């Protein structure tokens, strides 16, 4: 695609000019936007860039490893990639906390603290990279009247790190253009085609208190769900699909024994803008297969439910 190819050349040239020999810091989440922004920057200024990836222990199964394989020292890019395994800090802070907004705040603040600590180690930073894209620019200009959920993503850091300027190489692009640029830069499809994943991660897909055990349950269930959806090839029209862990336990039976275990909720939505969404009609065979696998393979789960609710009145995520 020559148009995005020329975008890359032009942007790289502009970034070189702007940054000169300054030092650049990027919070890399492994999401499409921050990944594409990071690779563009690395093309422009090479090892003047440092990327920090904070693993808060609330990522999907294998995600931390996958991101590190692509962007770490063994991968094809030279990003001065630093992975911070901070899961213990996050689990500790989240102990006993059940209120959704409080959970979001804790995760967001802790994220900033961890990032800030890494930034300090690097020393003087001149530029901070943000993966802001065009829809973010428009949305933040709208001034929403009611906060439904306080948002956390890797874009929200500027006050906490001492730097001269923000660079936002993607601020004129729509999501599909960002994906195109990512493909042109050779970023694997697996990352470029990723569905949205919220900053607070699985923390908001576990209703109620977050524990290591619950993280394991939702990771396993979600992995099975995504695997079966991919196998069945039914993800074409889905905007987002994932498993969440309800806070409900119920009675079940296994062999001659009574169980009292958690219920997993499966969600799949069709949406164009994530402001409204419709629950997708997944084939029953797929749901049955996923359900059987989850109750058989994931310890601690004896019931699986499908969320048929639209947004509104529900939201896409559970918290
Ligand atoms: P809701 O649950 O509000 O989600 O219907 C709408 C879209 O936003 C994503 N989401 C987030 N993304 N930080 C993010 O970067 C967040 O804190 C956050 N909360 C929700 C959600 O996954 C969906 O795509």
TrEMBL record:
List UniProt keywords, sorted A-Z: ATP-binding, Glutamine amidotransferase, GMP biosynthesis, Ligase, Nucleotide-binding, Purine biosynthesis
Mention any one GO cellular component term assigned to this protein in its UniProt record.
cytosol
Known catalysed reaction(s)? XMP + L-glutamine + ATP + H2O = GMP + L-glutamate + AMP + diphosphate + 2 H(+)
Question: Which residues belong to any copy of the GMPS ATP-PPase domain?
Answer: 2-194
Q: Where does ATP bind?
A: 29-35
Question: Under which main EC class is this enzyme filed?
Answer: ligase
Q: How does it assemble?
A: Homodimer.
The protein, known as: GMP synthase [glutamine-hydrolyzing]
Give the organism, scientific name: Schwartzia succinivorans DSM 10502
Primary gene name: guaA
Which stretch of the full-length chain is present here? 196 to 514 of 514
């Amino acid at each position: 695609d020559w148009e995005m190819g020329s975008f890359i050349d032009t942007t790289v040239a502009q970034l070189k000019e702007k940054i000169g020999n300054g030092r650049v810091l990027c919070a890399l989440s492994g999401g499409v936007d921050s990944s594409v922004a990071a690779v563009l920057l690395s093309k422009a200024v090479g090892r003047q860039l440092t990327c920090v990836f904070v693993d808060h222990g609330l990522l999907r199964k294998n995600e931390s490893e996958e991101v590190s394989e692509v962007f770490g020292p063994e991968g094809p890019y030279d990003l001065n990639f630093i992975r911070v395994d901070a899961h213990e800090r996050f689990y500790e802070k989240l102990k006993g906390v059940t209120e959704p907004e409080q959970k979001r705040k804790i995760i967001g603040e802790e994220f900033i603290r961890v990032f800030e600590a890494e930034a300090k180690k690097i020393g003087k930073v001149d530029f901070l990279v943000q993966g802001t894209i065009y829809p973010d620019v428009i949305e933040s200009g709208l001034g929403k009247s009611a906060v439904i959920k306080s948002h956390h993503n890797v874009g929200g850091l500027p006050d906490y790190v001492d730097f001269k300027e923000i660079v936002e190489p993607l601020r004129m692009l729509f999501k599909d253009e960002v994906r195109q640029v990512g493909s042109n830069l050779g970023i694997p499809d697996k990352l470029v085609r990723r569905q949205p994943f919220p900053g607070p991660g699985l923390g908001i897909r576990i209703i109620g208190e977050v524990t290591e055990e619950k993280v394991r349950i939702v990771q396993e269930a979600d992995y099975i769900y995504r695997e079966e959806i991919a196998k069945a090839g039914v993800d074409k029209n889905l905007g987002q699909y994932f498993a969440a862990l309800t806070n409900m336990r119920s009675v079940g039976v296994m062999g001659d024994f009574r169980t009292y275990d958690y219920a997993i909720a499966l969600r799949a939505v069709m949406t164009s803008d994530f402001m409204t969404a419709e629950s997708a009609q997944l084939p029953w065979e797929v749901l049955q297969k996923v359900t059987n696998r989850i109750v058989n393979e994931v310890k601690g789960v004896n019931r699986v439910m499908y969320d048929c609710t639209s947004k509104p009145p529900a939201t896409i995520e559970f918290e």
